[in-house]
Structure to design on (341 residues):
């Protein structure tokens, strides 16, 4: 009888201990960002005027989604960095509000600091510390133990294939390697909101892919990723959405996956064709003619390809053009038109 009583007490003791341990582990994981709750980032009617009367951002409203990589694109001076800096709380909007999980970025900046990690456009100073030390110390500043920080730093160095340079001092690293170090320092704590200003500049093609893959992993875990870049091919390949800024305004906000599933356009280029011979296309299709290069560009929906190719073959047969090519229209092809719209 006494034995049974003791067994019950032991079982209860074990059960309570398991509950307490589970509770603390959950708190620790949520706090460290291993378990990420969905994040909400809302930019509403944000404008930014600088002293020289420049309106760098003009009434911008955007809802950023968790699990999503959003690319901010646009000409030099379009207002991309200004927008990033306001989201990161580095500069204050002249008008409008920015909220992360209903926390006001402007009024409650200290609360927001934990939620956002920023990689600036310019190189961070890395004097006197090695790549590994620089990444590790950021992890410790963000609250990880020294053991966990070292492990995490080693992991990210290895995923970006940087092991050969990890013990080299910052100032002795090449521009691209410094950029990669800065990237690792930004993403190490897997913040709910990660903003990066032209992170792939100076980075080689293989490691660019590794950077984008790393960002995809973080987005899959729940981070909101916002990246400024001028590389439209990378945007199209790796981002979920792009926002085109022009003269401080949002000109386009496109979900890339939808764009492809709903509206694939093809581009037919016909070479060495004279102006007088383009009417066969221009009467039926949307065309653009470059007089200097004698190049005709025809924008086509899938259902019109066959008809257009039939016309091209006829034109070639009659010696009125020398060659043609056909491809799916990409963001780079459309960029100038979008800006001029
Ligand atoms: N601190 C500042 N003081 C005055 N004007 C500024 C300041 N920062 C930016 N600007 C101006 O605001 C406008 C937007 O600049 P911003 O850096 O946001 O553009 P961007 O799109 O990031 O350009 P880039 O692609 O060249 O980096 C530009 O005309 C710029 O000169």
């Amino acid at each position: 009888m006494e034995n049974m009583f003791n067994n019950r007490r032991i079982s209860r003791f074990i059960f309570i201990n398991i509950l307490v341990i589970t509770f603390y582990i959950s708190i620790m994981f949520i706090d460290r960002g291993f378990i990420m709750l969905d994040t909400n980032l809302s930019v509403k009617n944000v404008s930014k005027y600088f002293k020289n009367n420049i309106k760098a951002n003009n009434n911008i409203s955007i809802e950023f989604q968790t699990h999503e990589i959003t690319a901010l694109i646009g000409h030099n001076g379009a207002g991309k960095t200004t927008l990033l800096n306001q989201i990161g709380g580095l500069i204050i909007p002249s008008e409008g509000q920015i909220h992360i999980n209903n926390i006001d970025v402007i009024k409650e900046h200290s609360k927001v600091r934990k939620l956002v990690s920023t990689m600036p456009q310019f190189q961070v100073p890395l004097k006197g510390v090695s790549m590994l030390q620089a990444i590790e110390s950021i992890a410790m500043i963000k609250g990880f133990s020294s053991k966990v920080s070292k492990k995490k730093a080693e992991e990210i160095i290895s995923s970006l294939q940087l092991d050969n340079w990890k013990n080299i001092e910052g100032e002795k690293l090449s521009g691209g390697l410094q950029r990669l170090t800065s990237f690792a320092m930004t993403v190490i704590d897997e913040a709910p909101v990660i903003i990066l200003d032209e992170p792939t500049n100076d980075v080689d093609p293989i490691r660019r892919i590794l950077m984008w893959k790393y960002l995809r992993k973080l987005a899959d875990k729940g981070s909101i990723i916002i990246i400024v870049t001028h590389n439209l091919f990378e945007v199209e390949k790796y981002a979920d959405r792009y926002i085109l800024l022009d003269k401080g305004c949002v000109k386009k906000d496109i979900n890339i996956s939808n764009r492809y599933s709903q509206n694939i356009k093809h581009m037919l280029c016909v070479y060495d064709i004279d102006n007088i011979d383009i009417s066969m296309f221009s009467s039926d299709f949307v065309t653009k003619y470059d007089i200097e290069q004698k190049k005709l560009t025809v924008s086509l929906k899938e259902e019109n390809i066959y008809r257009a190719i039939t016309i091209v073959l006829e034109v070639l047969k009659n010696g009125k053009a020398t060659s043609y090519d056909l491809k799916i229209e990409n963001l780079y092809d459309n960029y100038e038109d979008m800006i001029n719209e």
In short: Confidence is low (pLDDT under 50) at residues 19-35. The first strand starts at residue 41 and ends at 49. Residues 50, 52, 54, 56, 74, 76-82 surround adenosine-5'-triphosphate (CB under 6 Å).
